[in-house]
Amino acid sequence: MFYLKKMTKEMHDEVLAMVEQFYHSDAVSHPVPMEKLEQTFADAVSEDSILEGFVLNEDDTTVGFAYITEYYACEVGGRCLMFEELFLKEEFRGKGYGTRFFDEIMKAKPQVRRFRLEVTRSNEKAVHLYERLGFEFLAYDQMVLDR
């Protein structure tokens, strides 16, 4: 049976092992320092955080992890949810776990007006999944200023 479990501090080693795999895959366009990945996990398991972390499970087996966050977007006139990261272990890809994850989150968040994610176009399997779920590419680029 598939289910989501909120991340806890006790999951640190298991989650960070998957995070490292994610950040060494073609899903990521540039390296991220380990201290940032550690901070992200700490924020996801803190009590006062806008970042939510989940471990995806099938029965007693961990199949992946995800981070999500909510924010307000004026162009939408309401809440948006950003799928920050979704990672499935290699042996569990293509088995419907990604679809089930999106279904669970979308059902649990009826107040959200827009769901958003980032994907590299070269990650064809992910793009195919997201398009099948109804996602479409935006017509503008993003810019950032990091502090």
UniProtKB/TrEMBL annotation:
Transmembrane segments: none annotated. This is GNAT family N-acetyltransferase. It holds the Pfam family Acetyltransf_1. Residues 6-147 form the N-acetyltransferase domain. InterPro entries: Acyl_CoA_acyltransferase, Diverse_Substrate_AcTransf, GNAT_dom. Keywords: Acyltransferase, Transferase. The keyword Transferase applies.
